[in-house]
Amino acid sequence: MVRRCHKKSYQTGVDMSVGESALIFLECTACGERYPAEEINTLCKACGKVLFARYDLQLAGRGLHKDDLLVREGSMWRYRELLPILDERHLISLGEGMTPLLPAKRLGAKLGCSRLFVKEEGVNPTGTFKSRGLSVAVSRAKELGARVLAMASAGNAGAALAAYGARAGLEVWVFMPTHAPAMNRAQCQAHGANLVLVDGLIDAAARLAQERIEEGGWFDLCTLREPYRVEGKKTMGFELAEQFSWVLPDVIIYPTGGGTGIIGMWKAFDELERLGWIGQKRPKMIAVQATGCAPIVRAFDQGSEHAEPWEGAETIATGIRVPAALGDYLILRAIRESGGLAVSVTDEEIISSLKELAREEGIFACPEGAATLAGLRRLLAAGTISGCESIVLFNTGSGLIYQDLWRVTGG
Question: pTM surpassing 0.85?
Answer without folding.
Answer: yes
